[in-house]
């Protein structure tokens, strides 16, 4: 059974990989690799995975990890820039780092910070660290984020990227049952063309998408 791509809505999808737990499909239009919807966790099962996360602002190792996105993004910001951390999780830390640097931050997380009022305004920058791989409907969510990004603003994403079909089979990233969407450089380049964004890659898991 096939399904339309959850990022670009193309029906041109096909088999990419399978293991003992799940199937993985790929989109021939935007190159997203994804788990079919009927194999996703339930909402309760998904939250149980996140509840086991032990991230905290006092964890210097976690701060260094987030620094891979923080450092290149903060270099692009003007004084007084206003940001949104999407998918902030049970222990918001990146937002604390930006606030310490002098930037105001709003938080949104469907489980831990479900504040719908954040969608009543726009932002100079939006971050989503280790988030997009969890999204059942990444096309809808990314478009919403871009809709709330001011002209010239930057969307900073942290997610491991698909390298090849061969590497995918042994990839630790697909072992997490809450990971259902897997992006490659080609996928982000497609997003750049689709939404008129300048795309810049940093390290092996950070991409900045800036509105022209």
From TrEMBL:
Its EC number is 2.1.1.-. It is an enzyme of class 2 (transferase). One of its GO terms (biological process) is methylation. The keyword Transferase applies. Keywords: Methyltransferase, Transferase. GO terms for molecular function: methyltransferase activity. It comes from the Bacteria. InterPro entries: SAM-dependent_MTases_sf. This is Class I SAM-dependent methyltransferase. It comes from Halomonas elongata (strain ATCC 33173 / DSM 2581 / NBRC 15536 / NCIMB 2198 / 1H9). The lineage of its organism: Bacteria, Pseudomonadati, Pseudomonadota, Gammaproteobacteria, Oceanospirillales.
């Amino acid at each position: 059974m096939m399904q339309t791509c959850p990022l670009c809505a193309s029906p041109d999808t096909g088999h990419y990989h399978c293991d003992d737990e799940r199937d993985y499909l790929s989109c021939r239009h935007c190159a997203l690799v994804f788990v079919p919807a009927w194999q996703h966790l339930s909402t309760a099962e998904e939250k149980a995975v996140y509840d086991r996360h032990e991230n905290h602002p006092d964890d210097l190792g976690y701060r260094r990890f987030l620094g891979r996105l923080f450092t290149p993004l903060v270099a692009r910001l003007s004084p007084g820039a206003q940001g949104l951390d999407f998918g902030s999780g049970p222990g918001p830390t990146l937002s604390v780092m930006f606030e310490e640097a002098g930037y105001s931050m709003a938080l949104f997380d469907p489980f831990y910070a479900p504040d719908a009022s954040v969608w009543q305004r726009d932002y100079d920058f939006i971050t989503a660290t280790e988030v997009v791989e969890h999204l059942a409907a990444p096309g809808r969510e990314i478009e919403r984020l871009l809709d709330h990004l001011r002209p010239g603003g930057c969307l900073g994403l942290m997610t491991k990227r698909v390298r090849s079909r061969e590497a995918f089979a042994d990839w630790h990233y697909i072992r997490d049952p809450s990971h259902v969407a897997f992006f490659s450089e080609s996928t982000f380049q497609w997003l750049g063309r689709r939404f008129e964004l300048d795309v810049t890659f940093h390290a092996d898991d950070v991409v900045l998408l800036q509105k022209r």
